[in-house]
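Q: For a teaching session next week I want to show students how multiple molecules come together into a single three-dimensional assembly. I've collected the sequence lines for a complex. Could you give me the predicted structure tokens for the whole thing so I can convert them for display?
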Amino acid sequence: MRTTVPTSGALHFSTRGEYGVRLMVELARHYGSGPVSLSEMADHESLPRPYLEQLVVSLRGADLVTSTRGARGGYELAKPPSAIRMSEVVTALEGPIAPMICASDDPHHAGTCQRAGFCNVEQLWQRVREAIVSALDSMTLEDLAEPRLGHPAHPQPALLAVQPLTERSIKEPVTQP
Amino acid sequence: MRTTVPTSGALHFSTRGEYGVRLMVELARHYGSGPVSLSEMADHESLPRPYLEQLVVSLRGADLVTSTRGARGGYELAKPPSAIRMSEVVTALEGPIAPMICASDDPHHAGTCQRAGFCNVEQLWQRVREAIVSALDSMTLEDLAEPRLGHPAHPQPALLAVQPLTERSIKEPVTQP
DNA sequence: TCAATCCTGACGAAATCAGTCGGAATTGCC
DNA sequence: GGCAATTCCGACTGATTTCGTCAGGATTGA
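A: Of course. Below is the structure for the complete assembly, covering every listed component.
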């Protein structure tokens, strides 16, 4: 199964993103009931607590959660779940959304690509970035925290007009013969 | 500058993707003029030729380029540039577009997430994936190959309705104090 | 025949990242 | 006041991934 194509597929989040989002969802469910300790969440989500500690540092730095130290302490959301866009969460956990250095919103990266304004490939990355950001902006923590919501119909007013997407538009990658 | 946040930002392509796309753009510019050798392209794009050889394997396997061996041989596009969507190119180079294993179109991955149908986080990844795919579907190689096209106005009928995107919707990640 | 090219497989070295560990600081509770 | 539950902080490691290299074989035009 040796293949030179990246194993995990294109444009994937790190597991940091997945764990962090799950963690935030869990916090959203407990919103208003006082702080929740990391041990609790680690148990409930069966994730390693020491690792969660690291993630929460980023979330706290982005003012998404507040912490209360000491016994009976823990973490809670800094804002109501409906006020937290998923783009904030993902950005806090994984850094700026930049499919390519050409296409970063981080001014620190700007000017890194000496081909800017020269190659049109830049346009592609920009488009992809914008698409990702609007998708992430279209959902809040509240949307994900509801215990179980209607299956087919989206409760959201479908902010971004995703195409029907023929579902056959992607081809298999080149892996095995 | 020690930060636990991934250095390269969220949802980034690998450099494999960037090089490969550049390579395809170069091929598109020479479309119809016979095969182009890898050495030529390596020189022109100042990229290591041995590495390009690897990339081209994936592109050939996806039927995006054809090769002619022997002296004066080289590679050329298998289809006209306008018939090659960028989603095909990216998928060939980087594998299926899957922001999370939950959200992959690869049937081989399906069923990997035991939380499917249980957590709604899955919805988020799916939306992101669809957004990425339609962005990539909305551009063809031809769009990128034109030497220089209009700066502000998009020549494309803006297939996907990207939101105006306030440009201030993302916050800085948590890096330095 | 020769030289240019594709083709194949395997290899090395560097970066990155998931996850761990130990201990210090803070605070509720008995 | 002391204990126990917590957050907080910094550094470390081990494994995985990936960029890039290398050597040599197969194919073909001149």
